[in-house]
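Quick review question:
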């Protein structure tokens, strides 16, 4: 994919990472919604590919101005911000990048579980504040041997289950239906929470899962239970979670996603029982190489 010969234009349909843009900019001309108005009708009609991200979504009013659009490359695994039936009716294929997000997201889930259960961040603060000179760090919880519940055993959830199993956890899961996997299927979410020491959210976002992690779920998880969320912030009722953490009704949490990003509820910052991550599950050098390669492959097969 080069700029030699016919200029290859790609419509910017939503926000996407700067490093992806920087990698592809020598090869294509990115056209913003504002720039569309200044292009000849024939040039606009010739734009067949759009680029955005799972967090950026795609503005329907912009898509309607692109009669030749055939594909949308989306950085990320999430599809809840896209109207799939509407796109299908227009003959537009959505191409997210779930495969390149799986390993890093699953690894982050395990890291957050370990950090929360073994007090990694809290012990770091304890050391830096001089606490060791006057006392002992609080006891944590061993991950090995823990009962882990996975909410959503898709591509990422399955990999989380594999990693936790390898670390000695007993794994169970819930979802729409049982799958041919070696782990126990529990159709009742609250029962899964009640029978788990660690509950990991790896389900899709959207209206169907909004506030799935509710006050009732935290009550079932109990004062010895830990929550990890690497799915979407909307899956958690944050008001209920903050109350549960503040009151000690759950033992702790590790969160990579929030309802309001990049400015989550400031009350999270003062909760010692909570490990926070800035939606950075896939922020590895290896992921960026894989991600840019995948976006380039989508573009090459389209342009």
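Suggested answer, residue by residue:
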């Amino acid at each position: 994919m080069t700029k030699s010969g016919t200029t290859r234009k790609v419509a910017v349909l939503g926000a996407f990472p700067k490093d992806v843009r920087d990698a592809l900019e020598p090869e294509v001309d990115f056209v913003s919604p504002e720039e569309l108005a200044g292009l000849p009708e024939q040039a606009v009609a010739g734009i067949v590919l759009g680029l955005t991200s799972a967090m950026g979504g795609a503005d329907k009013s912009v898509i309607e101005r692109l009669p030749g659009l055939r594909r949308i490359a989306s950085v990320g695994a999430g599809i809840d911000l896209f109207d799939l039936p509407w796109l299908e009716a227009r003959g537009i294929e959505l191409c997210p990048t779930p495969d390149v997000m799986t390993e890093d997201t699953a690894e982050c889930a395990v890291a957050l579980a370990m950090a929360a259960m073994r007090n990694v961040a809290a012990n770091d603060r304890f050391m830096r504040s001089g606490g060791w000179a006057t006392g002992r760090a609080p006891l944590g919880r061993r991950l090995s041997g823990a009962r882990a519940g996975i909410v959503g055993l898709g591509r990422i959830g399955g990999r989380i289950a594999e990693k936790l199993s390898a670390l000695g956890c007993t794994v169970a899961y819930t979802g729409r239906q049982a799958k041919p996997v070696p782990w126990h299927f529990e159709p009742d979410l609250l029962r899964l929470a009640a029978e788990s020491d660690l509950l990991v959210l790896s389900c899709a976002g959207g209206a169907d899962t909004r506030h799935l992690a509710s006050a009732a779920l935290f009550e079932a998880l109990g004062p010895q239970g830990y929550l990890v969320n690497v799915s979407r912030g909307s899956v958690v009722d944050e008001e209920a979670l903050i109350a549960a953490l503040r009151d000690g009704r759950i033992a702790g949490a590790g969160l990579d996603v929030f309802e309001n990003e990049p400015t989550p509820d400031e009350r999270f910052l003062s909760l010692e029982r909570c490990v926070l991550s800035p939606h950075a599950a896939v922020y590895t050098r290896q992921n960026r190489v894989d991600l840019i390669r995948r976006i380039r492959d989508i573009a090459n097969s389209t342009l």
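Why it works: The CA atoms of residues 6 and 33 lie 21 Å apart. The domain at 9-96 is CATH 3.40.50.720 (Rossmann fold).
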